[in-house]
Amino acid sequence: MPTSKDQATASAWREATGPLKGLRVLDLTRVLAGPTCTQMLGDLGAEVIKIERPGAGDDTRGFAPPTMPGTSESAYFVGVNRNKRSVTVDIAVPEGQAIIRRMLEDCDILVENFKVGALAKYGLGYDELKADFPSLIYCSITGFGQTGPYAPRPGYDSLIQAMGGVMSLTGEPDGLPQKVGVPVADLFAGLYGCIGILAALRHRERTGQGQQIDIGMLDTHVAWLANQGMNYLATGENPPRLGNQHPNIVPYQVFPTQDGHIVLSVGNDPTFKRFCENTGLRHLLSDERFATNAARVTNRQLVTDTLTPVMQSQTTLAWVEKLEALKIGCGPINKLSEVFADPHVQARGMLVEMQHASGETVKVIANPVRLSATPADYRFAPPVLGQHTEEVVMDLLGYSEEEFAALRAKGVV
After folding, report:
1. 252-334 is a CATH 3.30.1540.10 domain
2. Residue 16's pLDDT is what?
């Protein structure tokens, strides 16, 4: 197992420059929701210490293939674990619990995504820690939150997408319900957790008091039903699946072109007027079925059938060039190879290369938060398992070489 002494260059902990510089986070998370939260904190300058199981680590280390080229690390793990130190500790034994408590003496934030009550068995739940660490901000991310009839249940992204309603809204009208192609339930839970932590930090600045943040994936999923959720609350009717169409705006959808497909986004009536005037459809403007967005929503299929042969008359590129010149929203449907080759994506720096402990350079997706004075800080590539155990336990916590050797011999670290 690599140690800080074995990889001095790779594990040297450069001082952060982001807005959360000086904050220390104890990361007891794995898989995606929790690591998304803690990576965001790390990108913004916090020092994140990731606790992993000795010999196994975060489950996602095994979510391969694919692995990052030249390394044994899964692409999944690398995607959400930069700017973190990896420390292996067995929290199920008293010696491991003592290490965690010693870390908390100098930590501001703890983030965990264990099942409800699991950490309490080890004396590491919020109720067990708050008396000794009253200023600690303790963020718990679970499938269903800390209370309610479903609280004990495990939470998984596709399960939450199903129970939270988005699958009933996604897919073709006559097809099966579909989940979103990326794990949005996990990602939103992690981001809401980060928002809660930032709010709790502000509260602590004023009062000196910490608190627990209770993030339930189902809660966050219901929250981002957004306009579709509000459509239901306004009408009492379940919104139908519309495929690639918008529930409240028409035309705002995918159309076939001469050589592929395009997204056409006509956001208001003046834009529709401009579209018609420049595509040989001026006559539609005097037809009450097309005159307003409300009418077009009511006559959705007619609008689609009318515009489809027009859109099929030109290539995707020709339409993009024509419609962009008219300030009409449109865009191609890019494969990921086209996304990362897109000149705008490249100009915005959305791909970052980092030096991994293996000696290889790994590519990661950049943090999208742009701060003019304190931008995201890419200090360290995602760590190999246990890369920083020795330096944290000995140098940071003050354990002696003999104590550390004894802990390692017992499998505690």
Report:
1. yes
2. 86
Sole residue written with tokens 């590519």: 363
Does the pLDDT of residue 6 top 90, yes or no?
A: no
Q: Are 120 and 194 in contact (CB under 8 A)?
A: no
CA distances from 96 to 54, 86, 127, 313, 404 (A): 11, 15, 19, 67, 12
**Prediction pTM value:** 0.92
SS3 of residue 256 by DSSP: strand
Helix (H) or strand (E) holding 252: strand 252-256
Name the residues annotated as catalytic: 186
pLDDT at 17: 87
List the CATH code of the domain at 8-224+368-409.
Answer: 3.40.50.10540
Overall average pLDDT of the 322-331 stretch: 96
C-beta separation of 375 from 62 below 8 A? no
Cβ–Cβ < 8 Å for 233, 222: no
CA separation for the pair 31, 329 (Å, rounded): 36
Burial class (CB in 10 A: 0-12, 13-18, 19+), 149: exposed
